[in-house]
Prior knowledge:
This protein has 414 residues and is α/β, with parallel strands linked by helices. It is built from 14 helices and 18 strands.
Amino acid sequence: MNALEKLKKYNQDHIIDLLQNFTEEEKEKLFEQVNRIDFNQIESLYNQLNAKEKETPDEIEEIVAINKDKLINNEIQRYNTIGENIIKDNQYALVTMSGGQGTRLGLDKPKGLFKIDIKPKPKYLFEILADKLKEKNNQYNVTIPWYIMTSEENDSDIKEFFESNNYFNYPKSYVQFFKQSNLPLITEDKKLVIGKNKLIKEAANGNGGIFSSMYSNNILDDMKERKIRWIFISSIDNILLNIADPMLIGLAEDRKVEIATKSIIKSSPEEKVGAICKKDNKIKVIEYSEMSEEMKNAHNEEGELKFGESHIMCNLFSLNALEILAKKELPYHIAYKKSDYMDANGNIIHPDAPNVYKFETFIFDGWSYFNDIVVLRGKREEDFAPIKNKEGQDSPQTAIALYNNFYDKEIKKL
């Protein structure tokens, strides 16, 4: 079946009508894209649009995280020693998810290229991570492998940025890039949309796509060759990220689990972060958008938010867990977004309201394939200063304040 037949079969005739405005080269690129799109998958995802219901407190249970402040000194020392030995034995790696753009921050570039005015000097988000890695390398006398997930949209910009900045003096042979996969956007009436580049508009398939992307790009093979056992996966935008916490590693190793995650307590019921909880005896995360009002505001007997243990994208996986998850199909979540598109006359339309559905998988849905995971409660002032918005909560302003406060405290310790 050729591309035109495929478009007709799946009722995408509006794209065929647009071809009169395309050059032969543009048509060829579009047809190549059409031929690699799995239209049966699109049909299946579209059928899920009205199937998702919000979770209620009756369906899930509260989880109890390990609170470092409640552990005795001998326990803390033991976990830290176990974790430190794993790092010293070159069995640890970092994966950074950086497939997004900095659009919400007013940056028409990859988010990792955002520069923030922190102490002692302004740095790019990628530079902050590179410096943290170098500090850990010096501390443990190792070189931690750094794997960076890009996207089709920003891969070349990120690679060029690293080259032009000499990898921030991080050993180039220890840095590898790999691309995240995409899925087409679709409208309410199941139509694909064409962008200004005259191609079908696509978006990254969510952070849960990292498992299959690591497999298809031979990242897991490289880790195996390097004898890596534990891999920390996090996002690019948390400038307080502890990129190698020996206690988290030591807890996972000691408890004989395949996955560990760090959490913080929600600042309020309305904070837009996912809640770690338990359902069907499995630890999982309920996204903020999928929580009922009752669940957001539920309190336990101690007066704390019952579902206030937040997922902050600080996830530790064994290599074995990653190999298992690379072969699993995670559930898709749905987001309704605004997206520019080409109309029937070839004009680019900028909608005022959401007009397309985006489908994405989430990394924490992989937890359900394992009997148990470790949840270590961290502290906002030490572990979590994200940059999500241009202003207000989780903005550069709030992140800078958290980072600089932490920096000042660390300087006083010296």
